[in-house]
Design goal:
The complex is a heterotrimer of chains A (95), B (295) and C (257). Chain A has 95 residues and is of the alpha+beta class. Chain A is built from three helices and five strands. In chain A, a hairpin with a 2-residue loop joins strand 1 and strand 2. The longest helix of chain A is centred in the N-terminal third of the chain and has 5 residues, at 28-32. Chain B has 295 residues and is α/β, with parallel strands linked by helices. Chain B has two domains: 6-113 and 273-294, ATPase, nucleotide binding domain (Nucleotidyltransferase, domain 5); 125-265, Nucleotidyltransferase, domain 5. The longest helix of chain B is centred in the C-terminal third of the chain and has 23 residues, at 213-235.
């Protein structure tokens, strides 16, 4: 499943996508993110399974454009810590 | 199916409840229920062995637990069933953690996917749910499992709330917006701002320029349709396609979404607002079956 | 050399007339339906303020969202360029310029020569601009000026969950119903707004000193929240809403960078 967390507003599209087939629920991205964007929970979209997956926290879903801002400087952008930490390549950003 | 439906015009949408007078719930094995507490409306659905038995659809009050209770009471009305007769209740929607008698809360995306699968059958692939305060796009497989989704509840554009701002600005009842917006000879250019605040200023300027209300509404419905199509495109749209939620009742937005996508949305056999609660009731049944197996 | 700069913004049209870096006159009018009329009105106001006839203007540069609509402008500049020119003329030590206007927020990083190195813009969403505080003032039923002052008397930080101005309005109303103090709501509004502006500024790298310009810089509640968020003081000019227009006027005179 591709879970897209975030939003589109007048200024643009801001989505963090998690591929739950790839995500192992290891939590490396949770550790890597300096701003507490992620958490590992039982897959909320598949209530009949007990699989652990990473999700963007409820509180952050409405403001990732701003929360992720410091990791996305206008020029000389380094690799994003959350994506770099994910060995399974399960996380992507739309912007 | 609409027989035995009582309706009353209360606030913005029509409230209704229904139960199947030909079904004897006492003969069922599992009685399950789903309660969807949304920001604007709340629904309760009762199912007997996975078959729809009763439902209610009413406005959400300021107190979520009370709204859940009211919706449930109204669904139970005239059935001879008491809350205790229901084996498993799932809460869903924006107020899902505030359903006091629910055994479990499940996110509305999962419930909508499952509910749409029930309402439209296994051929349904793409569901667009436009609620009071959010807009969801969901891709589902033939079993009603979520394949991909996105939910926008950060921005009012593309939600019922955004439409209400316009209805208020123009002094038009929300239920009339859709039809009025179609009373134009040709489509005007769409309102260019996505942001509801800016779109409202734009609309005020158009009114001052002398545009009739119908034309302004057309321009906004077009913009709203264009916006949600943009969201859908992120997931990819595959038929069958359905629109649920309060905005599904707005023909002005729905017809323009269909036009832009060049795809017809399925016509629902049931009130589209109860999709989430149906999904909740189906999950309730499955969870109980899972529990029983474990024992 | 006497020059004028005109900033055709979303909410106001501003004109600054300068000679050799000294401001001779300024004018501000609400941007009406008829942009041409508003432009003329703003020029007339500034000329009257300066006590000059329009023939005295040797050059006119335009900026702002409606800059292309100014008839007879000798040249036009982006808001970013005009902002940087105006702010660094007043504050040569500034390395970051933050401009918060009615419909847009901008963060600009400039080098020691005042040249623009990087910039970020919040646009087309009311949440990151003055329109947000205006909507919240309406929901609180206070004047915009009052909102800022109220905020300063707050003793408690209340979180605001809604980001969208439309949803935030409803949240403000619920907070009022829940008997939350008005001043605490006002602070919540400014804190929320400041967080968004700071985040935008961090994308260009916040280097001291920081100049805050644009109409919202007049809101002491926002300034307080922003300074808390940035953990530093910001420089605010006397007429923050005129800085883009000033920048355009200076660029016309060859004084801006």
């Amino acid at each position: 499943m591709i879970a897209n967390y975030g939003y589109k507003d007048g200024s643009g599209e801001y989505f963090i996508s998690v591929d739950t087939e790839k995500c192992t629920g290891c939590g490396d991205c949770v550790e890597a993110c300096l701003y507490g964007v992620f958490e590992v929970v039982e897959n909320p979209l598949d209530p009949l399974s007990d699989d652990q997956v990473v999700v963007v926290t409820e509180a952050e879903r409405k403001k990732i454009k701003y929360t992720c801002g410091p990791c996305k400087p206008v020029s000389d952008r380094p690799p994003l810590p959350c994506m770099a930490a994910c060995l399974e390549d399960a996380i992507s950003h739309s912007w | 199916m609409a027989e035995d439906t009582t309706s009353k015009e209360y606030w913005r949408w029509t409230e209704s409840n229904w139960h199947d007078p030909d079904m004897d719930w006492r003969e069922g094995d599992i009685v399950s229920a789903g309660v969807d507490v949304g920001s604007v409306s709340s629904q309760a659905v009762i199912m007997v062995d996975g078959k729809l038995y009763a439902y209610s659809n009413m406005r959400t009050g300021s107190d979520s637990p009370k709204s859940a209770e009211n919706a449930m009471d109204w669904a139970l009305e005239g059935t001879g069933m008491a809350l205790d007769d229901i084996h498993y209740v799932v809460g869903t929607g924006y107020g899902r953690v505030n359903v006091p008698f629910a055994k479990r809360a499940i996110t509305e995306i999962a419930c909508h996917a499952r509910g749409a699968n029930f309402m439209y059958g296994p051929t349904i692939k793409t569901v667009l749910d436009m609620g009071g305060q959010d807009c969801k796009a969901i891709r589902v497989d033939q079993k009603g499992k979520v394949v991909s989704f996105l939910m926008n509840d950060k921005c009012a554009a593309g939600t019922g709330r955004g439409m209400e701002v316009f209805a208020d600005l123009l002094g038009v009842h929300i239920t009339k917006v859709g039809e009025m917006s179609l009373q134009v000879d040709e489509e005007p250019p769409m309102v260019s701002s996505t942001c509801v605040v800016f779109a409202k200023s734009e609309a005020s300027a158009l009114l001052r320029e002398g545009w009739p209300k119908e034309k302004v509404l057309a321009a906004y419905c077009l913009a709203m349709a264009h916006r949600v199509v943009g969201l859908l495109e992120r997931l990819g749209i595959e038929e069958d396609f359905a629109i649920t939620g309060g905005i599904a009742k707005n023909i002005g937005v729905v017809s323009r979404i269909e036009k832009e996508l060049e795809i017809k949305a399925l016509t629902p056999s049931l009130d589209t607002q109860i999709a989430g609660a149906i999904g909740g009731a189906l999950f309730a049944r499955a969870l109980l079956q899972k529990e029983r197996k474990k024992k | 050399m006497i020059t004028a700069g005109i900033d055709v913004g979303a909410k106001n049209v501003k004109v600054v007339i300068q000679e050799d870096g000294k401001i001779l006159g300024k004018g501000l009018v609400l941007a009406g339906l008829d942009t041409q009329a508003s432009i003329k009105e703003a020029f007339d106001a500034a000329l009257k303020d300066a006590g000059l006839a329009s023939e005295k203007l040797e050059k006119v540069f335009a900026t702002g969202a409606g800059r292309k609509e100014v008839p007879d402008a000798d040249d036009s500049y982006t808001e970013v360029g005009a902002d940087a020119a105006g702010a660094t003329y007043l504050y040569p030590q500034a390395r970051t310029v933050i401009d918060v206007g009615a419909e847009e927020g901008r963060a600009i990083r400039v080098n020691e020569r005042g040249k623009v190195v990087d910039f970020a813009i919040n646009e087309r969403c009311a949440a990151g601009a003055g329109a947000f505080t205006e909507a919240m003032a309406r929901a609180l039923e206070v004047e915009l000026e009052e909102l800022g002052q109220l905020s300063l008397t707050s003793t408690k930080a209340v979180p605001m969950n809604a980001q969208c101005a439309v949803f935030a309005e409803s949240e403000v109303v619920s907070l009022i119903h829940a008997k939350t103090e008005k001043q605490d709501i006002a602070r919540a509004v400014h804190d929320a707004m400041a967080t968004r502006i700071t985040s935008m500024a961090r994308r260009v790298g916040v280097k001291p000193e920081i100049a805050l310009v644009g109409g919202v810089a007049r809101n002491p509640g926002f300034v307080d929240s922003l300074q808390r968020d940035l953990e530093t003081e910001v420089l605010i000019p006397e007429d923050p809403e005129y800085i883009s227009a000033l920048g355009a006027a200076l660029l016309a005179a060859g004084l801006g960078k």
